[in-house]
Give the backbone structure.
Amino acid sequence: MSAPEDGPPPPPHVRRRRTRRRWFVGLGLLLALIAVPVALLALGVVGGDASDEPSASEDQPVEPDAPDDDVTDGPADPEADGDDPADPVDPDALPDPDALPEPDAPIGERPGVTPSLDPPDADALDGDDAIYAQLLIDIDRSERTMIAFQERVAEALAELSGSPDLLDELRAIAGEQRDELRTVRDDLAEEVDVEAAEEIRGIYVVHLDSWDAYMDAVSEDPAVLAGEGVDGGFTVVINQTADAFRRTLDARLPLDAEGSVQDFAEGILDRGFRGFGDAQV
């Protein structure tokens, strides 16, 4: 969580909204952290009775070893399935918290801004506004892909808990959402000419890649899910890059950006990056 921001406290309706969101998010995380290990335990993937003599991959929650200086370990043969995965997130490439901007005017506290998830019409905008609008539309597609991964995993755990089909379903979900995320990344790969927008794009792609690495690991071994509490290796990197994106977007989106662009930016932040200590997507 970033340091408290200077200035007057948010109005009561904003505080109430953030309190409700923190409660629901906290409950959702708690349920997920309980459901994943329990469901995998039921299949003998993690834990188990000592007398069962589990294999090396079954005796405890599995989290991939980090080779050399990489954050995560990819599949043994990354070309085996025909995919061309993004490079693992290098710790040296992660944002330096001390170098990140501290926004003077966070988007949600700017006069007239109302959070919205209705995308602006980029084709109807001109100049920088059109560039920011299209960038945020692509970022929203990425965020929705991550959310779909979480929702599909939760549904699989609810519907297939204890079933031998659960692991294959989790692998399939992770692989499908990873591939969709990489498709979105292709649209975010091209640099933009506006300096501040390019800074936002660059920092977001690092966040996207942290999710790519996580989904890729789950597609190889769903037991990774059981080791991903709030201190899990993937979670730490995901949340660190999420905080960097939030701070950068707050600081770099112009104060005079078109209203629908600012509303959409705040809607994205409000959905997954605000109101609790660790951003979720």
User: Anything to note?
Assistant: Confidence is low (pLDDT under 50) at residues 1-10, 12-35, 47-87.
